[in-house]
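Why run this: before we spend reagent on co-expression, it is cheaper to look at a predicted model of the complex and decide which construct boundaries make sense. The entries below are exactly what would go into the expression plan.
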Amino acid sequence: MKRKITLKQIAKELDVSISTVSKALRNSAEISEDTKQKVQAFAKLYNYRPNNIALSLKNRKTNTIGIIIPEIVHHFFSKVIQGVETVANKRGYNVIIGLSNESFSKEVINMEMLANGSIDGFILSISKETLLMQDYHHFNETMSQGMPIVMFDRVANEIQCDKVIVDDFKSAKKAVTKLIENGCKSIAIITTKDYINVGRLRTQGYLEALENNKMPLTSSLILKIDDSLDMEHNLAALENEIEQLFKDNKTIDGVFAVNELYALSAMKVARKLNIKIPEDLQVIGFTDGVLSKHSTPSLTTVSQHGKLMGEKAAELLIDKLEDQTETEEETFSTVVIETELVERETTI
Amino acid sequence: MKRKITLKQIAKELDVSISTVSKALRNSAEISEDTKQKVQAFAKLYNYRPNNIALSLKNRKTNTIGIIIPEIVHHFFSKVIQGVETVANKRGYNVIIGLSNESFSKEVINMEMLANGSIDGFILSISKETLLMQDYHHFNETMSQGMPIVMFDRVANEIQCDKVIVDDFKSAKKAVTKLIENGCKSIAIITTKDYINVGRLRTQGYLEALENNKMPLTSSLILKIDDSLDMEHNLAALENEIEQLFKDNKTIDGVFAVNELYALSAMKVARKLNIKIPEDLQVIGFTDGVLSKHSTPSLTTVSQHGKLMGEKAAELLIDKLEDQTETEEETFSTVVIETELVERETTI
DNA sequence: TTGTACGCGTTATCAA
DNA sequence: TTGATAACGCGTACAA
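The model came back. Tokens follow.
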């Protein structure tokens, strides 16, 4: 088992100094053709590669991006990672991941861990617990130490940093308007509690769409799910709530769900109650997931373009990292990714 | 914007030497209570944290695990990552990801990138292209440099390293036997070309199950999909092949599919051909995915326990990394994760 | 009780 | 053309 070879070892073997080796390998004009040849051949033979850690220490730059997300077993987030990774690799960066599991403390710990020199900057989506507590001190601290942050999807308006979002309000409005155009008279929304920003915005979009079309706002048609518990493992409870919604409002002929799981659950309940989709009930979800495409009937959705969000976030971050100009006032941008209504079989 | 504070700066501020600060922070008995108090208070105030990179360089240990997978937008692989991350964090390690996108060259480049000091060891699943080419030199090179590798799921028997797998052969046999017990007389398999190890093993399990039950082996019932092309984006082609399979073999009353997508496609085709599931056709898939649970009817599957695989892989790797004993002959273990037949609605 | 020196692997600067 | 030295930030053996 031969350890990785270093400059020092090469120098010793060839009986020259370390700096000569270093220069020879970087093809410096200072070094004679002779020694260059000799050194380069030797280095190639032993497959020399500079040690990243040493370079990071010397350059005070790791060329690594830290990405903190609430969960990874989630189509949207893995799409985002894919996007980040694509751009990062193209521009010579690695990606290191930290999962918050929707927990505030894990988010903080993970960020501290990575902030101590391991990475150059963060790309992150805020955990539910953090949003609920509205405690954002760790973001400010990180940035005050000169480490840039790009937030995506679940962002905090209070924090000054680059952001990549979709226009949740407008997109929801568009989706609900679509339902109205398709003839729905009684449209329910299945959404999250308001502390989740995206949930709140989507609810507002729903309300505005109804209002603009002079449709009555019925509070019983608004189902706000408390998903502080993990609904993925509490499907029965979710379905019960939805079933109750249907039973309390027999007129429902349209459902707008703010995520894939809610949409699918609504479809499942509808099937159970013998409600035909899309004839008697039209459904639109808000998601970038795979379930929509493969469900029966396949689900019409507002697509968020997760991969594109990841790419944009990575571009923003790396641009900032490599921006030399020392401006007085730092400027932050918010990129809004256009959503797309993908029409499938749950709408007519 | 205050940069992260270092020992040097603290030393300067307090007018003591760097090593005094270092010792004081580690609560060394060498240092007087007085100075300790002073230093610790100051460090706390400025939120001092040792620089990971410097520590890595000094200790020649990064406490970071590299994970290389073919794709991340895939339920099984994200489950594995989740498992790795859980164990890694618990034991004080970070996780850095590299995606091969099923490409040999990206796999090699990514590994080289990370192997140059960024990480202590690899957890990986081999890309399709690498399996096809059977070029495993990069694995051997990495290990010969003293960097351990743990392979999971898609492993190479030729390579001596720790492995975490499921017993594909036995699991497939179990699944097909289940179909036979359920009364299926004509069972088709939808699998991959043989260069994918897991596909080959699952096919063998299928064959053995038939044989053990004295059922005829009909070659036309074996559909080997060439997924060198990305089937996810070529669903139509996949469905055509399956439709042909059904049309050529009208007797089919059971399908064993080696992954989720194949299983769902089979179900879709069956629906199109007005074949009732599970009355006329029973289906079992091999997967750990979400689609199975939410499909209609929900799919009976062989579950691979991806998260558990990740956890095991991480345990193996970290154990090896922290094993001090310098044994003559290195020993490698292969952990076999038990699969589980999750019975849902596509079997009676 | 405190400080000096060294090494981890690299590169840049300056001296020979 | 080559080599010695310093520096990145840390911890530790050893000297004061």
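The domain at 63-164+306-336 of chain B is CATH 3.40.50.2300 (Rossmann fold). Chain B touches chain A through 51 residues (CB under 8 Å). Bring this page to Monday's planning discussion.
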